[in-house]
Amino acid sequence: MILVIDAGNTNIVAAIMENDAAVYVKRYATGKEENCTYHYNVLSEFFCDVEKKTGSKITDLIQGAIVSSVVPSINIALKRAVKECLHLEALFVSNKLDTGLDIKYDYPEKLGADLIAGAAGAVFKFGCPVIMIDIGTATTFSVVNSKGQYLGGAICPGPYTSLKALTNLAAQLPVGTLGFTDKIIGTNTTDCMSIGAFTAHAAMIDGMIDRILATIEDKNVVIVATGGPAREITAMCTHKVQCDRDLVLYGLSKLYFRNTK
Description:
With 261 residues, the protein is α/β, with parallel strands linked by helices. It has helices spanning 36-54, 58-61, 75-86, 113-126, 159-169, 189-215, 230-234, 247-258; strands spanning 2-7, 11-18, 21-29, 64-69, 91-92, 102-103, 130-135, 138-144, 149-157, 222-226, 242-243. It is globular.
């Protein structure tokens, strides 16, 4: 078993992986201003909950840890928390790892750890060429060609990020929880905002896929999406998109074993 941690701008997902599958998962707020104690307490509670379910001391079974973080300010705190909980040094994802990808990014050292983990996971699981879409605070596109070259991608505001910006800047639009709708033409403000936030996001994804496919030479490209609302949003896409909620966690697991003995 290993511990994998995917630290995003809004949430952190910690998972205990066995045979590259997430068997226990904990999601919690990133806490950008929090210190090591915050992460230590959350992880300790997570391990205690797992131990109650299994009757086994899970911390004795975890043999390694790997972290993908896009929030540099919390990296030291995360590293210390893992060290204190497991007495292990966490491996942090960067372009310096053996990723199995030939990264063609202009500045490879600036490629986000989440993009590396997601793209690697997509290639390990689905092969290449592949377009990997991660829908979260940001919606990101990663393109890997048939040669295993990471060509680059795109970074767009995620659906909830766009919605938050819209309600903050438009005084008359209501703030509330919106749902998905099959409507294309809204007849009330709530439906109109739902269409704009989610259906329009699916249309954006379709449009980006069209343009990416027109740009690259590869055919039979696999398109895969991950992230919280990925399944609902890609269901509204015209392109066939496979969904894998745990793709980044899977990629982290594969990267850990690829880079350790």
